[in-house]
């Protein structure tokens, strides 16, 4: 019997900090097809999303490209993913020519950390 090519759903949630400083919860639904690393984002036909393999058991890595932008995302079930996972993600994004790394706050009141390759803005 042939393998099924019925798409499966993957729902991811995050809280996004807006330019005005407010945090807004967001949810994305991705449709997966067996045998492919490309995902379709529900409601965003212009967006291409690619899934990358990861050694982190509780995380996934994505690259999203749309009209005029590209971003890499690391989703993890833990608010503080293991350092090896973050390092693996940074290595992947660096090899794909990403120039900056942004780690969003995980708790209310936690300072936003922004790192340029080799430069930590908190040491200003």
Automatic annotation (TrEMBL):
One of its GO terms (biological process) is high-density lipoprotein particle remodeling. InterPro entries: ApoM (IPR022734), Calycin (IPR012674). It is found in: Secreted. Belongs to the calycin superfamily. Lipocalin family. Highly divergent. It holds the Pfam family ApoM. The lineage of its organism: Eukaryota, Metazoa, Chordata, Craniata, Vertebrata. Keywords: Disulfide bond, HDL, Lipid transport, Secreted, Signal, Transport. This is Apolipoprotein M. It comes from the Eukaryota. Probably involved in lipid transport. Can bind sphingosine-1-phosphate, myristic acid, palmitic acid and stearic acid, retinol, all-trans-retinoic acid and 9-cis-retinoic acid. The keyword Disulfide bond applies. Interacts with LRP2; LRP2 mediates APOM renal uptake and subsequent lysosomal degradation. One of its GO terms (molecular function) is phospholipid binding. GO terms for cellular component: high-density lipoprotein particle; low-density lipoprotein particle; very-low-density lipoprotein particle.
């Amino acid at each position: 019997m042939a393998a099924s090519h019925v798409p499966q759903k993957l729902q991811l949630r995050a809280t996004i900090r807006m330019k005005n400083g407010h945090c807004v919860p967001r949810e994305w639904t991705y449709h997966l097809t067996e045998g492919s690393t490309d995902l379709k984002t529900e409601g965003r036909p212009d967006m291409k999303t690619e899934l990358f393999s990861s050694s982190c058991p509780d995380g996934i890595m994505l690259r999203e490209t749309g009209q005029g932008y590209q971003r890499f995302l690391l989703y993890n079930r833990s608010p503080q993913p293991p350092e090896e996972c973050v390092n693996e993600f940074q290595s992947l994004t660096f090899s794909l020519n990403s120039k900056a790394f942004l780690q969003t706050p995980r708790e209310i009141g936690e300072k936003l950390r922004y790192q340029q390759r080799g430069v930590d803005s908190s040491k200003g």
